[in-house]
């Protein structure tokens, strides 16, 4: 990719400006009258003689044309060569903004200090490294517990105990549509959740950013297509990636479920099965709740 450093770009611009100024000065000096003539109104002045039209005036117009062409010859390549670096910086700024919003989203909601908060830390732990959460009761009346995933190693996929994650799109689909057997609700508006596509993308980018530090690049299926367990994402955004083999699904940990299916997207089923997910604290903070009209936040 061609790109100019800031110093080289400024040098080219200064040289081009000097060239235009010098050439313009020469043309102005050449066109300046040698001696003052009589004060004749413009309407009464004769037109340029044939000799003037064929030499000085024509040369003056040609000179200005050369200056403009020279200016464009410098300005257009300068912007063309500079554009890749400008676009790259814009992409970096946008990614940094996504990560910053995602970092706020995982925290608890606060009407004063954090209006972006969703509360991922409530189930996945204060450091997103997993936790133990009571969700409903067993048939014998004893409390039932679930084990939310360690999100600091989720990009390791099968290499770090997440056999159903094969790329970043699998993380996105899990957030969007949830995993019923693991007690994970859907958070996407498409799945009757509370988050739009931008908020989910911010979350995914934040998780990828923290996994860059905790998961070796050789095992990171979010950023390394050559990592063991990586699978090319599906063409439909948010759709779950098919496991490369049946053995991978069979080795899933108790905290993970099969890829999202129509059953796992049933909000009524989730509410009846995991209605008390993440303890009673859910009633005092931002969390999904099922009602007749679908999922609501409170």
Descriptive tags:
single chain, 298 residues, mainly alpha, 2 domains, two-stranded antiparallel ribbon, 4 strands, 43% helix
Please explain how this structure is put together:
By secondary structure, the protein is mainly alpha-helical. The protein folds into 2 domains: 1-28 and 59-94, no CATH class; 120-297, no CATH class. Helix content is 43%, strand content 6%. The protein has 8 helices and 4 strands, in the order ααααββααααββ. The chain has helices spanning 6-31, 50-54, 56-105, 120-124, 168-177, 197-214, 246-250, 267-274, and strands at residues 133-137, 143-146, 288-291, 294-297. The strands form 2 sheets. It has a two-stranded antiparallel sheet with strand order 1-2. It has a two-stranded antiparallel ribbon with strand order 3-4. The chain is rod-shaped.
Number of domains: 2
**Which H/E pattern describes the elements?**
HHHHEEHHHHEE
Helical content (DSSP H or I, runs of 4+):
40-55%
* Beta-strand content bin: 5-15%
Using only C-alpha atoms, the radius of gyration works out to 33 Å
Number of helices: 8
Termini, distance in Å? 49 Å
């Amino acid at each position: 990719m061609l790109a100019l450093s800031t110093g080289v770009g400024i040098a080219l611009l200064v040289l081009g400006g000097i060239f235009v100024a010098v050439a313009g000065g020469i043309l102005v000096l050449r066109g300046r009258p040698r001696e003052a003539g009589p004060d004749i109104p413009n309407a009464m002045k004769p037109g340029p003689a044939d000799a003037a039209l064929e030499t000085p005036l024509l040369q003056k117009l040609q000179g200005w044309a050369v200056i403009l062409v020279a200016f464009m010859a410098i300005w257009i390549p300068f912007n063309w060569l500079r554009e890749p670096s400008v676009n790259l910086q814009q992409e970096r700024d946008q990614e940094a903004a996504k990560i910053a919003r995602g970092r706020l989203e995982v925290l608890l909601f606060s009407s004063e200090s954090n209006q972006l908060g969703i509360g991922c830390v409530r189930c996945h732990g204060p450091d997103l490294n997993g936790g133990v959460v009571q969700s409903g009761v067993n048939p014998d009346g004893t409390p039932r517990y679930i084990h939310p995933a360690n999100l600091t190693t989720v990009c390791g996929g099968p290499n770090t105990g997440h056999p159903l994650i094969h790329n970043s799109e699998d993380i996105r689909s899990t957030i969007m549509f949830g995993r019923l057997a693991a007690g994970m609700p859907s958070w996407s508006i498409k799945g009757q959740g509370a988050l739009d596509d931008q908020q989910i993308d911010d979350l995914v980018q934040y998780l990828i950013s923290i996994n860059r530090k905790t998961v070796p690049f050789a095992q990171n299926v979010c950023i390394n297509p050559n990592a063991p367990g990586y699978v090319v994402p599906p063409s439909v955004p948010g759709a779950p990636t098919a496991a490369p083999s049946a053995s991978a699904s069979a080795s899933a940990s108790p905290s993970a479920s099969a890829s999202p299916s129509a059953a796992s997207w049933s909000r009524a089923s989730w509410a009846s099965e995991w209605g008390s997910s993440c303890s009673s604290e859910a009633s005092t903070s931002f969390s999904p709740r099922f009602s007749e009209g679908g999922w609501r936040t409170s």
